[in-house]
Amino acid sequence: MTAARSLRQIMATTDVHSALGAGGPLLGHLHQARTDSLLVDCGDFFEGTGYYRLGRGALERDILLALYDVVAPGNHGWPHYFEPGLHQRTVCANVIEDSSGNVLFRRLRIVDIAGRRTAVTAVIGQQAFKSIPVGQRSGHRVTDPVQALRELMLAHHHEVDSWVLLSHSGFEQDLQLAEACPFLDVVFAGHCHSEHTGPERVGGTLVLKGQELAVGYAIAERSPEGWVGRTARFPETWESVLPTELDSVREQIASIDAQLAEPLGRLASPHRNKPLDRRVLLRELADQLRSGLGCEAVVLNETAVRTTLLGEVLTTGDLLAIEPFDNSLVEAQVTLAFRNDPAALLAHLTERAGPLITSPDQLPAGLTSVLTTDYLADTCLGSRAHPVGLSLGSAIRSILTNGDDQ
Known about the structure:
This protein is α/β, with parallel strands linked by helices. It contains 14 helices and 20 strands.
């Protein structure tokens, strides 16, 4: 893809999470930039909006294959990175097949950037890897990123002039990674969804991150003084003639936009014409599920739900923006180690999945099962979970509309 282009810089996105749309600036800006930029993504391009839920990843895959040169795998959409076309664009140095020890992806790409042979590699952080649902990462194992990068450098140091890392670990972790691997020239960070974007220097290493959800990007280029970088937002208005290979993308977006506009019911008055308070929503949901289904306890991960601005009517797009991950509700068994130590159980779940909403507030000792999402169960509680015949989205819809369907 890069043979016919003279590349002077690297442009990186991260955690796009399917934040796509016909009126968004992402596609046009990337198409223009790829004339002289190596386009890379630091993971989690998939999952997070109705575009993914309704398109099942085909739209995101087509964009990555049409516009991007190198991508790092993220914990969201993990299976997509093994699809034949996308697998060829994906690099990662520290994930292996458990049985053989073979790497699952190509470990690096070597590309000419402004006359310098530049190695582009990637890693996924151990926390990010462990947040992949167990069934999706079965037979896969993550290794220490520092050790993997050092081994890679020793094997290829004579072939390259510069080292660039795409990391799906989190900005703070990447600062530590840069300190441990001073041979790295640039680290593009991802995964953390923080306001901290850099650029920040760790010795001779530049660490920076584009804003998530297709809001912004990061750029690094070689100057006489070394690598320099900056971050920027995608322009809110961008007019560009897209190539014919993106015709199918435009058609997919238009089709999904029509589905997202479908009304589902009039919103209950407490939720109309305001941003959704996801903590309030999940608290109400947890309490209703516990009382309605007679559960010992309900544990919901706050990150399963997103906030959005609501109007008078709940649309399919609104609901999929609020609950983009298609979670089912399941009854998960609590392991013996945690049954008499609910505080340790909550600490374990919080470490793996982020902030939690529980009902009751203090989980009882002797707890044998919890009602939760299949994501939280698969990631943190193992596979002993039984569906209760209810999706998280349908439960949320019922609360927001008080059961009113149009």
